[in-house]
Amino acid sequence: MKVLIADDTNTDRLLLKLHLAKLGCQVIEAKNGQEAVSQYSAHLNEIDLILIDVQMPKLNGFEAVKAIREVQQQNKQEWFPVIFLSASANEKDVEDGIMAGGDDYLIKPISQKVLAAKMHAMKRISDMRSRLVESNKMLESLASTDYLTGIANRRFFEVSLERVFDALTNEGDTCFACGILDLDKFKDINDSFGHDIGDKVLIDVASLVQEHIAENDLFGRLGGEEFGLVLVSESREGLIQRFETIQKRIEDYQFVYTGQLIEVTASIGVVAVSDECKTRNQLLKRADKLLYQAKTSGRNQVCYDI
Ligand SMILES: [Mg+2]
Known about the structure:
Shape: elongated
CATH class of the largest domain: Alpha Beta
EC number: 2.7.7.65
Number of helices: 10
Cofactor: Mg(2+)
Domain Response regulatory: 2-123
Structural class: alpha/beta
Distance between the termini: 55 Å
CATH architecture of the largest domain: 2-Layer Sandwich
Order of helices and strands: EHEHEHEHEHHEHHEEHEEEHE
Radius of gyration: 29 Å
Strand content: 15-25%
Domain GGDEF: 174-306
InterPro entries: CheY-like_superfamily, Diguanylate_Cyclase, GGDEF_dom, Nucleotide_cyclase, Rev_trsase/Diguanyl_cyclase, Sig_transdc_resp-reg_receiver
Oligomer: single chain
Number of strands: 12
Number of domains: 2
Helix content: 40-55%
Largest sheet: 5 strands, parallel
Bound molecules: magnesium ion
């Protein structure tokens, strides 16, 4: 466990550190309330527990914990335990401590035994918290990832599309466009080689395209054999080049499964933002029309409106 200890009395802090080290904890120190807040902010994701003295200069323990709980909320961090340490056994102080965002209150001098027992209990809470954070992360990733290819799913792509376009529009002279890529005659592949092979083609196409995806781009599977792209370039020509490269890469790639070579090509419809076409729905609709145009004029090509 990583523990933040805050105490203005050097000997108290040292003793506490020693005890905690014996219990196998890693310790971060603060000499007053102000320092406790900044140490917490600097180690946001790491701290499992805070042990904090009540009587301290600058910010006292209660004020510091109030500030820490605010930082925690702003950063959407899960709850972690805070234990107040104080020489005063005043009932009002105990109440104030809990109200300020503390979970427990220990009276100084702190017995090693009591501390060890408390730490044991806190370890359970901290483990629970880690599991919660882990499962939240997993849920988030499941909700945004395509199960087959591991890239973004339709929901994530669509939600991100507007955000990405807004961000890019504010960047000024960057060129960017939204594309819908669809594999040509994919039904034939499924029918002739089976769905297992069809799935392999989808996985390989996703990873081929992924090689050409940069940090500011967006790439996701919209469903079936259809993929969504947002690509960025410094010039219109550069942008066209990027889409052409992806289309060509799929055309040239040797898709071989169980000794059979499968011909795979893709058609892409590409649209840039204009006055008439700027919302997510308008962009996807227009890209879809251009994709249809690419299909009807022979497939294995890109049609643009940029
Ligand atoms: Mg003190």
